[in-house]
Design brief:
- The chain is an all-alpha fold.
- The chain has a single domain, classed as Ferritin, core subunit, four-helix bundle (Ferritin, Up-down Bundle).
- Helices cover 75% and strands 0% of the residues.
- The longest helix has 31 residues.
Length: 155
């Protein structure tokens, strides 16, 4: 690979990329969880939640690509296996199929967890003076804060 000279030291690029790997893992795990709930939600709120979950997982599908591409831009390989995501993610997997109300609660907690990951990675990107990563992380944080608010408003 050619030398990367984008005004960020190699150590700083690696530190930011490591944080972005955690954000990628959180986002991908949340994507899977949301898609699972979209498929399996039942009950009187089925139609609304089915559509709402689809909006969320569609947005997350785009996000994971953007995060992974930023990691690659920084010269680091992006994780791409379930095993890697499970090791890196703060979003906890759900093995059972909860009822609709519990799905909403679980997704709320998961979005809040991603916000916390964003906040920790944001600090690393600030120290590296990495404006591109800062913009990406800040945008993701805002999206997850809004998603958590919307989910909380459903109960």
């Amino acid at each position: 690979m050619q030398n990367i000279d984008i005004g960020i030291s190699k150590d700083a690029r690696i530190a930011v990329a490591e944080g972005l790997k955690r954000l990628l893992a959180d986002s991908y795990t949340l994507y899977l969880q949301t898609h699972n709930f979209h498929w399996n939600v039942t009950g009187p709120r089925f139609r609304d939640l089915h559509a709402f979950f689809e909006e969320q997982y569609t947005e997350l599908a785009q996000a994971v690509d953007e995060i992974a591409e930023r990691i690659r831009t920084l010269g680091v390989l992006a994780p791409g296996t379930y095993k890697a995501f499970a090791e890196l993610s703060t979003v906890k997997e759900v093995e059972e199929t909860p009822d609709a109300e519990e799905m909403v609660r679980i997704l709320t907690v998961a979005h809040e967890s991603v916000v916390k990951t964003c906040r920790s990675v944001l600090k690393v990107a600030q120290e590296a003076d990495d404006e591109s990563s800062l913009a990406l992380i800040s945008d993701r944080m805002s999206i997850h804060e809004k998603a958590a608010w919307m989910l909380r408003s459903l109960n």
